[in-house]
Design a protein that fits this description.
This protein is mainly beta and about 170 residues long. Helix content is about 15%, strand content about 40%. The structure holds calcium ion.
Amino acid sequence: MKKGAILGFALTLAVSGALALAESASAKVCDNDATTSSGCTQKYGGTWTHEDSSKSYNSDHRISKSGATNSDWYEWRFPTLPSGKTTLEVYLADSSFTNREADYEVLSWVWDYDEYVGSVNQYSAPSGWNTVGSIRLDAAKASVTVYGKDHSGASSTRTGADAASL
Ligand SMILES: [Ca+2]
C-alpha cells in the first residue's frame, strides 16, 4: 500500500471513530431497575426475575420465565428526549438470555400506539450493545418494551432485559 493510501485509510478510521463517539454521547441509556436520579423508570407485566451478573450492564438484569408469552413484557421509560431519528440499542451479555427472536417496540408519549422497531436473537447476539433498529422520536417521553414471546418458535427460552439506549 502506498503512503497516501495508508494516510487516507487512517483518516477514514479517525473520522468514523469520531462519528461513532458523537452518536453514543447523545444517546440516553436506561438500565433495568434504574435509579431515580437517572430520570428513567420501569414497569413490567408477568414474571421478570432480578438477577446479579458480572457480565450485565451495572452488574444486573431482569429475566423472564421459561417459555414466556406476550403477556410477559418489560418496559424502560425514558425521560423526554430530543426529536429526530435515533437508534434503539440493547445491552445483551448474559448467557442465560436465550430468546431467538425477541420483539422490541417503542412508544412516544404523543403517539397512540407502540411502534415495532425490530427483533433480536438474544441467544446469538454478540456480548455488549446490539442495534435493534431506528425510530423517529417527537420530543416527548418515550418507552421501550421487550416481549417474552420467542417468535422463532423455539420453546422454553428466556428473555433478558438489561440496559436500553435511545
Ligand atoms: Ca443492568
